[in-house]
Amino acid sequence: MRIREVLRTRRALTALAAVGLAATAAITATAVNERATAALPLDRYYRQHLSWQPCDGPGLDVAGMQCADVTVPLNYAEPQGRTMTVAISRIPAADAAQRRGVMLSNPGGPGGSGLDYFARTSPAMTDDVRARYDLIGMDPRGIGRSDAIDCHWPTGFGLQFAGIDAKGFAESTATAADMAARCAATEADRLPHITTRNTARDMDVIRGALGEDRISYMGTSYGTYLGAVYTQMFPERTDRVVLDSSVDPVKYGSVGMLQDMGAPNEADLDAWATWTGARDSEYHLGATRDAARATVTRLIEHAAAQPIRIGRFEVDEHSLPLILYIAFDSPGQYGLAAAQIRDLADAAAGKSVQPDPDLTAKLDIILRAQPRDNSPQMAVLCGDVGVPHDPDFYWKNIEAARASQPVFGSFANNITPCAFWAPPAETPTVIGNGLPALIIQSTGDTRTSYAGAQAMRHALTGSRLVTLDNVPIHSIFGRYPNACVYDAVNTYLRDGTLPAADITCHDN
């Protein structure tokens, strides 16, 4: 297909998706003024009684963990109208005599379920920190058990690789347009209200329902942005804040946020290829970095010409690189990624291959939206920040990035469903305050770049940045033990002491 024909196809898709965009735009609310909101009748939400019950579900079997539902308004500008339920969990403070208060949390995404967040991260806390806080997990509005958004996508991810040429990009554009149209058709009445600012408002309702004057907070990835928004909207209600693997608060939700993921992921592909090349006797993907990379490139090209049949799945050029992307948030997954690429190479060669359980789970979500699609992530991202609508804008960026990012450039610059979304109901929150906070970040993070943490440090002038040098890890605390980083976090949560200046930690 020639470029001109592909561009005409993309413009037609843009026009078709505008139908869904207009349907959502028709019910988009105006921005909510926080001062006006405070005068509205929200007391019944802040003073509601919570009924705590034993938690039920995977990862929620921690001793003493309880769960409750919090009622919040769908639209804070109309608090007497429809409501939503926000599910929360609680691990009580280990020592009532030392208790300081509550600590809320968010695991990232956006779209991540957070009820089990502290079940996973609290083991990294020292006993004297655990003694001080009720640890509160949360499924944010529209996510998980909190009246989840469900756009009934046929595939799982709103973010995908554009492919190797204009034809592949046209397919990707069609997929993004279809995803947006499905969301407008199924969730148009709720989409304008599934936003970070409303989740921050929900957090303050939770604070009130728990009977607390202030909240501490720990957030990872997108959760760092949510935490920063809370400090900006409710500074007098903010206590101690830890931001792990930080989003750039200026670029959040924008094209630039995704573009920042291109370089670190391409660098990690190099690191993985070097690691894999040194183990060619095991994986047979090539004995050098360049040879292993070439194997990946050939597989993507093969998948573009003919999807690779592996088990019950057909893996195309848009989905195959996602297998590496998912693996590249931790160096501990290099071997798993190499084994899975080996299986795909064998399948491409015509061998009968059954994917391992991990690859099966990945392909179920990527290709079949099982057990669920990731539309809540797009609901938040697209509901928070508007992006350019013209597919040509994205195509030009993809082509410009291919030289330096031959694999991940088509991911970091690709069009998303947000290009076909209605304008956000509110303007993004401008982050800038002097409240104390601790930011921890690895220099090799492939999800939230190190530059993003530096930008957050600049925006939160009372914060300190703890850098984990030369480690490609996303989400450090509770996932990548490092005595230097963990000590900084636990010291701050225990007694409120930030490092005197920004510090750098090294791998153990």
Please provide a written account of the structure.
This protein has 508 residues and is of the alpha/beta class. Helices cover 42% and strands 14% of the residues. The chain has 20 helices and twelve strands. Strands 1-2-3-5-4-6-7-10-11-12 form a ten-stranded mixed sheet, sandwiched between helices. It is globular, with a radius of gyration of 23 Å. The N terminus is likely disordered.
Work out the helix count.
20
Residue stretches low in confidence (pLDDT < 50, at least 5 long) are 1-33, 35-39
Our Rg estimate from Cα atoms comes to 23 Å
* Terminal Cα span: 52 Å
Helix content: 40-55%
Which range does the strand content fall in? 5-15%
Using the alpha-carbon principal axes, give the shape. globular
Total DSSP E strands: 12
> Structural class, please?
alpha/beta
Summarize the structure.
By secondary structure, this protein is α/β, with parallel strands linked by helices. Helices cover 42% and strands 14% of the residues. The longest helix has 23 residues, at 3-25.
Which descriptors would you attach to this protein?
508 residues, disordered N terminus, 12 strands, alpha/beta, ten-stranded mixed sheet, two-stranded antiparallel ribbon, globular
Layout of strands and helices, then pairs:
Elements: H1 3-25, H2 34-39, H3 43-46, E1 53-54, E2 66-73, E3 83-91, E4 101-106, H4 117-121, H5 127-130, E5 133-139, H6 166-187, H7 196-209, E6 215-221, H8 222-233, E7 238-246, H9 255-259, H10 262-277, H11 280-283, H12 289-305, E8 308-310, E9 313-315, H13 320-327, H14 334-348, H15 357-368, H16 375-384, H17 391-401, H18 409-412, E10 437-442, H19 450-459, E11 463-468, H20 483-495, E12 503-505
Parallel strand pairs: 4-5, 4-6, 6-7, 7-10, 10-11, 11-12
Antiparallel strand pairs: 1-2, 2-3, 3-5, 8-9
Helix pairs in contact: 1-6, 7-8, 10-12, 12-14
